[in-house]
C-alpha cells in the first residue's frame, strides 16, 4: 500500500485515491464540485470538530457498524462510540491498499444490513422518482448519526425537479478523520457501489474538501474513477490518519 501519499510535511503530496478501475456509464448529467487544494484552503474553523450528542439509537447504530468493520478487517479496538468506528476505519486504512479498503467496507456493510431486507427494498422500490426521493428522505432521517445533520435538496433529473439530493453541510466522518483518502476509499466509493448493488439505486457522492460538505445525488451515476475530481485531491496537511498512527489495534 502506498503509505507515503499522506506524508505530513509542508508540501501537498497527492493522495492515491484513484485506484478503482471500475467505470460507470453515465445516464444523467452529473455535478462536479469546484475543489481547490484542501491543504491550502481549509481553515481552522472548518477543521473544528462539532460536538455530537448521540441518542440511544445513534449509539446502537454506531456500535453495530463499528463491530461490522472490525470483523471485516479482522482487528478489534477498545474504544467506544464514534471514536471506535473511526479507529476501525483507520485500521483498514493502514492494513489494506485502496482497492482492498473499498472491498472491506462493502463486506462490512453487507454484514451490517440484512440481505433479505435489502432485497425486499430493491424489489418494492425500483428506480423511479418515488424511490429516489424516498432514499433521500430516509438517509436524512436515519443516517445523521453517521454523516452528521443533513437536509433534502432538489436537482434536475431528465429535465424535471426532484427532491433526490441529500446535502450534508459538514460530514462527520470527514471532520473526525481529516483524511481525503479515507473519505474516498472508506466512504464514497464503497457506499456508491453498495447502494447500487444492494438496492439497485445509483448514487453519486460529491464531497467538497474545502468546507467538508457533501452531496449524495440519488439516481445519478458517479463519473468514472478516472474522471472523478474527488479522487485526485491532495490530503490535508494535518491528516489524522497518519498523525495518529500510534493507536492501539487489538488482534
TrEMBL record:
Pfam family membership, one: D27-like_C
A GO term from the CC aspect: plastid
Molecular functions (GO terms): cis-trans isomerase activity; iron ion binding
Highest taxon, organism lineage: Eukaryota
Domain Beta-carotene isomerase D27-like C-terminal: from-to ranges: 145-225
Record-linked InterPro entries: D27-like (IPR038938), D27-like_C (IPR025114)
One BP term from GO: strigolactone biosynthetic process
Database matches in PANTHER family: BETA-CAROTENE ISOMERASE D27, BETA-CAROTENE ISOMERASE D27, CHLOROPLASTIC
Name assigned to this protein: Beta-carotene isomerase D27-like C-terminal domain-containing protein
Amino acid at each position: 500500500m502506498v503509505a507515503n501519499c499522506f506524508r505530513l510535511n509542508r508540501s501537498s503530496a497527492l493522495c492515491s485515491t484513484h485506484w478503482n478501475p471500475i467505470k460507470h456509464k453515465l445516464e444523467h448529467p452529473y455535478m462536479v464540485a469546484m475543489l481547490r487544494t484542501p491543504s491550502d484552503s481549509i481553515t481552522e474553523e472548518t477543521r473544528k470538530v462539532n460536538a455530537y450528542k448521540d441518542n440511544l439509537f445513534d449509539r446502537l447504530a454506531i456500535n453495530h457498524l463499528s463491530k461490522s468493520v472490525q470483523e471485516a478487517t479482522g482487528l478489534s479496538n477498545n474504544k467506544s462510540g464514534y471514536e471506535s468506528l473511526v479507529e476501525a476505519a483507520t485500521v483498514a486504512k493502514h492494513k489494506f491498499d485502496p482497492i482492498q479498503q473499498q472491498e472491506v467496507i462493502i463486506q462490512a456493510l453487507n454484514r451490517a444490513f440484512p440481505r433479505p431486507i435489502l432485497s425486499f427494498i430493491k424489489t418494492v422500490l425500483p428506480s423511479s422518482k418515488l424511490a429516489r426521493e424516498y432514499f433521500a428522505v430516509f438517509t436524512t432521517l436515519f443516517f445523521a448519526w453517521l454523516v452528521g445533520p443533513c437536509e433534502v435538496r432538489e436537482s434536475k433529473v431528465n429535465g424535471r425537479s426532484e427532491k433526490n439530493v441529500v446535502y450534508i453541510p459538514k460530514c462527520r466522518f470527514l471532520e473526525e478523520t481529516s483524511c481525503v483518502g479515507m473519505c474516498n476509499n472508506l466512504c464514497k466509493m464503497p457506499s456508491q457501489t453498495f447502494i447500487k448493488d444492494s438496492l439497485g439505486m445509483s448514487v453519486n457522492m460529491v464531497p467538497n474538501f474545502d468546507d467538508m460538505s457533501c452531496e449524495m445525488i440519488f439516481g445519478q451515476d458517479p463519473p468514472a474513477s478516472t474522471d472523478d475530481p474527488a479522487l485526485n485531491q491532495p490530503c490535508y496537511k494535518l491528516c489524522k490518519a497518519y498523525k495518529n498512527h500510534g493507536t492501539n489495534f487489538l488482534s
